[in-house]
Amino acid sequence: MQPLLSQACWDTLYMVGWSTLIAVVVGLPLGVLLVLTDRGGLLQNALANKLIGQLVNVVRSMPFIVLMLALTAFTRWVVGTSIGREAAIVPLAIGAIPFFARLVETSVREVDRGLVEAVQSMGGNTWTVVRKVFVPESLPSLISATTTTIVAIIGYSAMAGTVGAGGLGDVAIRYGYQRFEATLMWIVVAILAVAIAIIQFAGDSAARVLHRRAGKGGEPFRFRLFGGFLPAGPVSAEATPAKTR
Amino acid sequence: MITTQGLTKVYRSRGREVTALDGVDLHVREGEVYGVIGQSGAGKSSLIRCVNLLERPTSGTVTVAGQDLTALAGRGPRAGRELREARSRIGMVFQHFNLLSSRTVQDNIELPLEILGKSGKERSAKALELLDLVGLADKAKSYPAQLSGGQKQRVGIARALAGDPKVLLSDEATSALDPETTRSILQLLRDLNQQLGLTVLLITHEMDVVKTVCDSAALMERGQIVESGTVSELLATPGSELAAALFPVSGDASGTDRTVIDVTFHGESATQPVISQLSRTYNIDISILGAAMDTVGGKQVGRMRIELPGRYEDNVVPIGFLREQGLQVEIQGNQDGQSVLLKEGVTK
Ligand SMILES: Nc1ncnc2c1ncn2[C@@H]1O[C@H](COP(=O)(O)OP(=O)(O)O)[C@@H](O)[C@H]1O
Ligand SMILES: [Mg+2]
User: Fold this and answer.
1) ipTM for the complex shown
2) Mean pLDDT in each 10-residue stretch from start to end of chain B (348 residues)?
3) For residue A91, how far is the Cα from the chain centroid?
4) CA B193 to CA B182: how far, in whole Å?
5) Nearest by Cα to A33 from A107, A105, A100, A106
6) Beta-ladder partners of B331
7) Secondary structure (3-state) at B326
8) Contact at 8 Å (CB) between A62 and A136?
């Protein structure tokens, strides 16, 4: 039972890790582009905005299992096979990209326009604005967005078992559900719950620290999985050491 | 130093057109502090944003330090390299400071230098020097959220000076600050103007700001400059709304058979005992209804509202005497001579 579980954990970590990385690397620029090309944006372009927006919507509206099947041919072209861990990463990443891109778009949109203007008045170009304003100023929200995306990918990855990718979800379904090994299933559930709790906690803490430093006050901190489980003591501005260069 | 010619800006949004600037000719000389005052919606922000082309003028030209910025702008909506370089030589401070909350005070000031591609050593040396200049040497490692409004604006000013600009644009830089902080920020701008020979174009809706720091001023109404000049020129202009608003005097006639006149003193005449001479020469009783005295640009200026017995027709000679003394005299009839500025409370 132990090797089975540790292999499953490893498979899940592998799939989730890679697809998160791809989702962030592709989704971040897409989300930023959605803001830049929007009306009144620095690269205002109605056609490009519409195109990206539609693409994002179409992929987001698709149930993951359908997306996975629809992408079979594409997956085979990319990784050479349509079954296994590597094969599962392709639909996971593609499913998560638009999800993350929309979250990025919302985060970046909240950045004060005055900051963009300030950078422009210093002679900065669009790329400067993206690097020096959009990303660093929305970093707390971007971290939260990443956390949310990871949790969503973990959820999707349970279905990856259907393409023989293994992972915790696959164990739960094959052993727990189909062979009535209830204990195994509960162990898997517990592992997933703890993993998600840790990710959520780490993400929330990081976002909160940055948020406080930026003086935004921030929404009252809540440990989402088990409400009130962890103390949400106030963090004073002084408790955040000034960044040393 | 800054010249605009026929500057026009029309905003078009969803079929609606707003003419924010309507043929503005502005002339700011090198080394002066120039204030543009007007009510909200007059077009002040549009004007200052057109000066560094954050906003594209619909027509007209903008010249800063001899460089025609409108020619650099090109046709596309994005700023080309030449325009961006020109902008880096023009500092700008904002009403809401616009500091990056993710950066320390020092890193905020270094931002323009990063954009200019300066080395890390150069950047931090310059930032620390500027922090010292604005009196915040101990706040280098703080985050903007830990500063007061006045301190934030000092950082904003330090940041605007990082690229060694010759020109500083200020869009309501003190409007979010309390009166005392406003005074200290204005004093800082004045010092910088004098120490660095910085040309400052500031816009405001507060008459006090103009009075405290400006060498010249312009009054904007509905996208047009309706009055402009140095403060002493304005004071010497009969019927100047700006002059009246800078030195508001009030007081009503004590009876129907009286002549009320506003006398403006500036330069030489401010030190002459004109009123007592008038009284003695013509043997008339003069009552003072109101007066205001101040120092503008290092010169004594003042305004006084006085009342002479008898109708205007009876006082033609004494009024002529005052004019001969180099004073500027305005007769306050029963006409609605009150300025728009006073009526609409811009001065408050
Ligand atoms: N981006 C914009 N789009 C449409 N109208 C604008 C825009 N900016 C300013 N305006 C309009 O232009 C006029 C002048 O505005 P502004 O220059 O901000 O005046 P002020 O700074 O004197 O208050 C106002 O009527 C305002 O509504
Ligand atoms: Mg304004």
Assistant:
1) 0.82
2) 96 90 96 94 95 94 94 78 93 96 96 96 96 95 95 97 95 93 94 95 91 92 94 80 79 80 76 82 87 71 85 86 83 54 41
3) 14
4) 16
5) A105
6) B261
7) coil
8) no
CB half-sphere exposure, B86, CA atoms < 13 A: 22
| Residue in B85, B104, B124 nearest the CB of A123 | B85
Residue B55 Cα: closest atom of ligand 1: 1
Question: What is the distance between the alpha carbons of residues B253 and A85, in angstroms, rounded to a whole number?
Answer: 95
Q: What's the gap in Å between the CA of A136 and the closest CA on chain B?
A: 6
Q: pLDDT tens for residues A141-170?
A: 999 999 999 999 998 988 887 778 888 888
- B289: tokens are 């209804």
Q: Whose CA is nearest to atom 11 of ligand 1?
A: B20
Residue by residue, DSSP assigns B174-231 as TTTS-HHHHHHHHHHHHHHHHHH--EEEEEES-HHHHHHH-SEEEEEETTEEEEEEEH
Which residue segments constitute the domains of chain B, with CATH numbers given? 2-236 (3.40.50.300), 247-347 (3.30.70.260)
What is the pTM for the complete model shown?
A: 0.84
Q: Quick check: A76 and A156 in contact, CB under 8 A?
A: no
CA B79 remoteness from chain centre: 28
- Residues B143, B136: Cα–Cα separation, whole Å: 12
Which of B84, B99, B141 minimises the CB distance to A242?
Answer: B141
DSSP state of A242: P
Instruction: Evaluate whether B232 touches B216 at the Cβ level (below 8 Å).
Output: no
Helix, strand, or coil here: A34? Answer: helix
Tell me which residue of A240, A113, A116 sits closest to B104, measured CA to CA: A240
Q: In what order do the strands lie in the sheet with B67-68?
A: B16-28, B2-13, B59-64, B67-68
Give the domains, in start order, of chain A with CATH numbers: 2-186 (1.10.3720.10)
